[in-house]
């Protein structure tokens, strides 16, 4: 059984896969408490893998996004295998503090100040910009680097930072801009 906060169908709003239809599985709880966190994730119900897969199969999209809370606290290789058996492409949004099942197809790591990264591989780095020094993240081994305004409130500062640090690209929380989930 895994503790699930919600399962919903939307478009990936952030990062490299922005605009792609995806089923979001939001797991309950987190090991960090970011002051800016935009998600109420603590509530949840325990679901079997059968039930989770049944829910995911209701939607036509190939992409599934594991998020939370912190999804890495709840998943293992067996769970990813089941999503693959259902024909899904599995992405994860993680703070990077816990080891991940190796078979996940796409890893988005959003490192948080003061927490140690434990993951071996990531496809994209997505930093929530609060005016901090981002140079320490530039040595991470990833293909794509995204800087995301915090709650859509500091977009001009984020644009300015990206233009000064062109290794990075802007990620907007587009679902908030168009008022979808
Ligand atoms: C709610 S978190 C869940 C996944 C995981 N715990 C993490 O932090 O990556 C999903 C994404 O939203 C980002 N995020 C959280 N609060 C935000 C905010 N107020 N503004 C912009 N992005 C935010 C996180 O950094 C992460 O990339
Ligand atoms: N549309 C949409 N895209 C997202 N990408 C990452 C999200 C998250 O909360 O992890 C998220 C979300 O909550 N909604
Ligand atoms: S790590 Fe992610 S879910 Fe946890 S508090 Fe921070 S932003 Fe929210
Ligand atoms: Mg979100």
UniProtKB/TrEMBL annotation:
One Gene Ontology term of the molecular function aspect: 4 iron, 4 sulfur cluster binding
Cofactor requirement: Mg(2+); [4Fe-4S] cluster; S-adenosyl-L-methionine
Radical SAM core domain residues: 17-181
Assigned protein family: Belongs to the radical SAM superfamily. 7-carboxy-7-deazaguanine synthase family.
Pfam families in the cross-refs: Radical_SAM
Cofactor notes: Binds 1 [4Fe-4S] cluster. The cluster is coordinated with 3 cysteines and an exchangeable S-adenosyl-L-methionine. Binds 1 S-adenosyl-L-methionine per subunit.
Binding site for Mg(2+): 39
Binding of substrate, residues: 11-13, 26, 67
Superkingdom of the source species: Bacteria
PANTHER family assigned to the protein according to its UniProt record, in alphabetical order: 7-CARBOXY-7-DEAZAGUANINE SYNTHASE (PTHR42836)
The entry's keywords: 4Fe-4S, Iron, Iron-sulfur, Lyase, Magnesium, Metal-binding, Queuosine biosynthesis, S-adenosyl-L-methionine
Gene encoding the protein: queE
EC number of this enzyme: 4.3.99.3
Residue positions binding S-adenosyl-L-methionine: 36-38, 69, 110-112
Organism: Bacteroides faecalis
Root EC class: lyase
Subunit composition and interactions: Homodimer.
Residues at which [4Fe-4S] cluster binds: 30, 34, 37
CDD domains documented for this protein: Radical_SAM
Keyword Disulfide bond (UniProt): no
One Gene Ontology term from the biological process aspect of the record: tRNA queuosine(34) biosynthetic process
Metabolic or biological pathway: Purine metabolism; 7-cyano-7-deazaguanine biosynthesis
Chain's role: Catalyzes the complex heterocyclic radical-mediated conversion of 6-carboxy-5,6,7,8-tetrahydropterin (CPH4) to 7-carboxy-7-deazaguanine (CDG), a step common to the biosynthetic pathways of all 7-deazapurine-containing compounds.
HAMAP family tied to this protein: QueE
Reaction it catalyzes: 6-carboxy-5,6,7,8-tetrahydropterin + H(+) = 7-carboxy-7-carbaguanine + NH4(+)
Protein known as: 7-carboxy-7-deazaguanine synthase
């Amino acid at each position: 059984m895994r503790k699930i906060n919600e399962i919903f169908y939307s478009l990936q709003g952030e990062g490299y896969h922005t605009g792609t239809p995806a089923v979001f599985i939001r797991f309950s709880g987190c090991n960090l408490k970011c002051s800016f966190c935009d998600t109420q994730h603590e509530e949840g119900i325990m679901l079997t893998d059968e039930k989770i897969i049944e829910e995911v199969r209701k939607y036509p999209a190939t992409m599934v996004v594991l998020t939370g809370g912190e999804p890495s606290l709840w998943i293992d290789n067996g769970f990813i295998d089941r999503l693959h058996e259902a024909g899904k492409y599995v992405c994860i949004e993680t703070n990077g503090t816990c080891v991940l099942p190796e078979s996940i197809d796409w890893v988005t790591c959003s490192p948080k100040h003061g927490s140690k990264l434990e993951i071996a591989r990531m496809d994209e780095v997505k930093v929530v910009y609060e005016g901090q020094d981002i140079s320490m993240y530039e040595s991470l081994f990833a293909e794509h680097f995204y800087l995301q305004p915090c709650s859509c409130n500091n977009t001009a500062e984020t644009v300015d930072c990206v233009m000064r640090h062109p290794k990075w690209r802007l990620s907007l929380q587009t679902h908030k801009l168009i008022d979808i989930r």
